[in-house]
Amino acid sequence: MQQHPAITCPFCGCGCGIYLVDCGSGHTRATGMRTHPVSGGRLCVRGWQVGDLATSFLQLQHPLIRRDGELVKSSYEDALAAAVELLNEAKSAEEPVWVIGATNITNEEAFATTRFAAGAVGADSRGCPARAADDSVSCWLQHSLGEQYLHPPLSALAECDVVLVLHSSLDTQHPQANAWVLRAQRAGATVIVLDEVCWDLGRVADLFVQLEPDGLGRALEFFVNGLQDPDSVEVDDSALSEALSLLAGAERAAIVASAAALPESSVAVTAGTLATLLCGERSPSDTIYMMRSEANSLGTAVMGLGPDGSAQTDLWELLDAERSLAATVLVDGDLARFVGVEGFDKLRPKLGRLVVLSAFPSPTADLADVVLPVATVGQREGTVVSGSGRVWLMDLFTDPPGEARPVVEVLADLTRLMGGEPVGPDIEEVWRAIRSEIPACCDVDLEELRAGQEVYVDHDALPILPAPSERPLGVPDLANGSDEYSWDLIVRRDDNDRAYDPRVQAMALLARDMLRARVPYVALNPGDMAEMRIRPGRTVQITTQLGSAQAEARSLEGVPPSTILLPYHFGDLRHELAGPGEAEPCGNRRWPSLRASLTGPI
Q1: 293, 234, 236: which is closest to 260 by C-alpha?
Q2: Please, is 484 exposed, middle or buried when counting C-beta atoms within 10 Å of its C-beta (0-12, 13-18, 19+)?
Q3: Rounded to whole angstroms, what are the CA distances from 103 to 113, 134, 300, 333?
Q4: Which of these, 202, 289, 327, 419, could form a disulfide with 198 (CB 3.0-4.6 Å)?
Q5: Does residue 515 have a pLDDT over 90?
Q6: Exposed, middle or buried by CB within 10 Å (0-12, 13-18, 19+), for 481?
Q7: How confident is the model at residue 401 (pLDDT cuts 50, 70, 90)?
Q8: 547-574, pLDDT tens digit by residue?
Q9: Residue range 181-195: average pLDDT?
């Protein structure tokens, strides 16, 4: 087979590891190789599959319209007309219209979605549910550091002598950062990992500090107090005290974390305070590396895809509220990823008329009124913004199948039919509008990107996230239950976190693993399972003060004794056992640890 030059990974932005391969049968296919020597393990799970996604036979090819309760194939023109009719009806209703974008969409698609929401639909309620955690952490860091925040170049990690990693799951959340941490370690840096569960990077760290549930904030406060006033903390022979000693003696230290590892506002603020104490003569922003957990969350923020003023629709509040919407437009995402499949069935009647632009089938698309197929990665040219502010150009190497079209083109057609001023569909036309309306992108040159030059957004012109406002917590403190609850239940992301990403499940080679990842399970300490005679795969019953549910038990080395790890991506299980979570300022939600009981096998 003939191998052609590498193209850019649209998710990691690493620019390597994805190749066009001539199969010798008269056509070219794309393949992403996560462990290829060129990529060096720096491809995320989605970038690894991009070639297979772009050529997947599972991709939606025809528009669908719901008739007599069933989705039936339609022409593109008829589907557009049906969507416009539904949205025009919704505009005259008293309830609001919600336009939702996914963080995997490109800058151009996010800009067009914002234009469509404001100009065609008149929707103040717009945003990205997946962006809540990233925006919240960025907001708190911004106010803690006193300046706009972008993380430094990852290559600067090689100059550090101590690297503090908050949670060891970087390999899952951001493989590039994980690779650079390991490179810094090989260059002589001491790597310290704080985590509740010893796995991934924790296994190869120079010092692993195992935390109690919800212990990250307390550990960071210990470091802050110890650096400010060494006499104020009790120093012993624990790993936490050893980590403090290493940080105190560091000439150049770095803090690395995925946004998903900073679960609450106080943790993000304390991390920013610690960065200020460790920065020396440098800027605090050069010390902390907050890696965004979603593909293009910064780009969607820059393009204005967020709530307008005080108008805000929260997915979890809507799930349990009595109110409903007139209509919802979803641009290339799946809401079941956040609230679970059963949760989405409950949410669906509250969304009103539902128009979905999607590249792949999903639980959300299955219950839509109109489905418009759109191009996926590799099928349209577009850009994303990395957490360091660099603009990456995603390559186009194949055409979308059937009647699938680029998102910008579909939104332009909808906007035009609804009497609005469309933007696009050409990427050059979109960028002319972006440069004139988005100050941070006024100097971004599309031709420079196509030539492979490094292009960055204007740091000083980035949008300032609104100041944090106090919001009431969603649930009471249930950390101290009765004696019958002898287990700790912690909610966190794991290696299967993309199980409900409609693009990832399209990978035919991973279909079996993906189906297994979607079977509700909890992870337990191997010793606990042996003592209770629970074999892997057997069902157990978990009960908290909020609810009770059954799940498959799986063994995971490093889970502390008497601890139940509940993977975040099981929205139904999470909602049943841990409730709606606690509302945080800046739009985030956190699921604090709970006391639970466990019985089994069943």
Answers
A1: 293
A2: exposed
A3: 12, 10, 7, 8
A4: 202
A5: no
A6: middle
A7: very high
A8: 999 999 999 988 999 999 999 999 999 9
A9: 95
Q: Determine contact, residues 81/385, Cβ cutoff 8 Å.
A: no
Rounded CA-CA distance 134/146 in Å is 18
Mean of all residue pLDDT scores within the chain: 85
**Tokens of residue 215, six digits:** 């212990």
Q: Give the DSSP H/E element, type plus range, for residue 30.
A: strand 28-32
What is the rounded distance in angstroms from the CA atom of residue 500 to the CA atom of residue 353? 23
Q: What is the C-alpha to C-alpha distance for residues 244 and 235, in angstroms, rounded to an integer? A: 9
DSSP state of 479: S
Q: Which of 172, 165, 158, 257 lies closest to 202 in space, CA to CA?
A: 165
Q: Which helix (H) or strand (E) holds 222?
A: helix 216-228
Strands 2-7 and 18-22: antiparallel
- Place 518 in a pLDDT band, splitting at 50, 70 and 90: confident
What average pLDDT does range 370-382 have in this prediction?
92
Residue 414 has pLDDT above 70, yes or no: yes
Query: What is the spatial distance between Cα 170 and Cα 182, in angstroms, rounded to a whole number?
Result: 11
Residues 128, 117: Cα–Cα separation, whole Å: 13
335 closest CA partner among 344, 326, 327: 344
